[in-house]
Design goal:
single chain; alpha+beta; Arc Repressor Mutant, subunit A; 54% helix; globular
Length: 96
């Protein structure tokens, strides 16, 4: 993993809404945007727009933390823990 890729992973972790989305996908993978929007809310408890959730999902995808698959006309999102393991092994492990 390059430093730029590692930076993207930690940037993705830096936002509480993105961490909430990762938690949702850990609980039940393969969620549609609609399902994520229905379950997601900001750190202050307010609902987030579909566009805002889409932007967060884009960041998580760029960081490699989620994967996208199409099931018919529905786009599903799933957790990809591999970058988390690499980040933990490469960088965080030095401090544990």
């Amino acid at each position: 993993m390059t430093d730029d890729e590692l930076d993207l992973v930690f940037k993705a972790f830096g936002d509480p809404t993105r961490r909430r989305i990762l938690d949702l996908l850990r609980e039940r993978p393969e969620r549609s945007l609609f399902e994520i929007c229905a379950s997601s809310f900001a750190a202050d408890g307010k609902s987030l727009s579909r566009q805002t959730i889409s932007q967060h999902l884009d960041m998580l995808e760029r960081a490699g933390l989620i994967t996208i698959a199409w099931k018919g006309r529905t786009k599903t999102h799933s957790l990809n823990a591999a970058p988390m393991r690499v980040a933990t092994g490469l960088w965080l492990k030095k401090y544990l």
